[in-house]
Amino acid sequence: MKALACCLVIFLSVSVVLIYGDSRQWGRRVSGDRLLDYAVVVNNSLPVPEKSSIYRYLPAAGAYRPPNITAIFTRDNVPGGKGGFAGIVSGGVNQSNVTLKLTSKPYQRFNFTIEIYGK
Ligand SMILES: *[C@@H]1O[C@H](CO)[C@@H](O)[C@H](O)[C@H]1NC(C)=O
Ligand SMILES: *[C@@H]1O[C@H](CO)[C@@H](O)[C@H](O)[C@H]1NC(C)=O
Ligand SMILES: *[C@@H]1O[C@H](CO)[C@@H](O)[C@H](O)[C@H]1NC(C)=O
Ligand SMILES: *[C@@H]1O[C@H](CO)[C@@H](O)[C@H](O)[C@H]1NC(C)=O
Ligand SMILES: *[C@@H]1O[C@H](CO)[C@@H](O)[C@H](O)[C@H]1NC(C)=O
Q1: Complete domains list, the chain, with CATH
Q2: What is the rounded average pLDDT of the residues 45-71?
């Protein structure tokens, strides 16, 4: 009985990981921040083993005081753990801009939702 319960727990934990894929967060929301940028980045190009995209957020040109980034979310929309990896190349939390690199697992597509908050 104990062994069965143990197996069940392991099974459920693995399922959660598989369902949610690789989503990451940097920083955290603070009161008074707002959505600066929202994007869905997809790469479906099939013949390429490893797909990648660079996503760059820059403040509007000529902004008097560019907002400071408080939080960055990358949510993997591909179920089953077949999505990709997200990483920060430059910029980020407490800066005015960020460059993200999205990479697929070999021979998989990716579909990321990106949300950037700042104030
Ligand atoms: C998809 O990934 C390939 C390989 O990295 C790249 O050449 C192509 O430009 C990417 N397409 C998009 C829409 O980012
Ligand atoms: C990407 O994922 C979003 C959210 O699940 C979905 O609405 C959208 O259709 C997907 N885009 C592609 C090209 O698969
Ligand atoms: C950003 O700034 C806040 C407030 O100064 C600080 O608490 C936080 O650790 C900083 N985060 C990073 C990633 O630099
Ligand atoms: C962003 O916040 C950090 C920590 O509070 C501060 O040091 C930095 O000067 C701010 N940057 C901008 C562009 O406002
Ligand atoms: C991004 O912000 C940093 C300071 O936060 C600045 O030094 C850098 O020039 C900015 N990069 C771009 C491409 O605007």
Answers
A1: 26-118 (2.60.40)
A2: 86
| DSSP characters over the chain | -HHHHHHHHHHHHHHHHHHH-S-EEEE---TT-EEEEEEEEEE--SS-SS-EEEEEE-PPTT-SSPPPEEEEEEEE--TTS--EEEEEEEE-TTSS-EEEEEEEPTT--EEEEEEEEE-
Q: Residue 92 C-alpha to ligand 1 middle, in angstroms?
A: 23
Q: Whose CA is nearest to atom 6 of ligand 3?
A: 94
Q: What pLDDT score was predicted for residue 39?
A: 96
Return the higher-pLDDT residue of 6 and 85: 85
What confidence tier does 3 reach under pLDDT thresholds 50, 70, 90?
low
CA distances from 37 to 47, 69, 71 (A): 30, 10, 11
User: Does any ligand 2 atom lie closer than 6 A to the CB of residue 40?
Assistant: yes
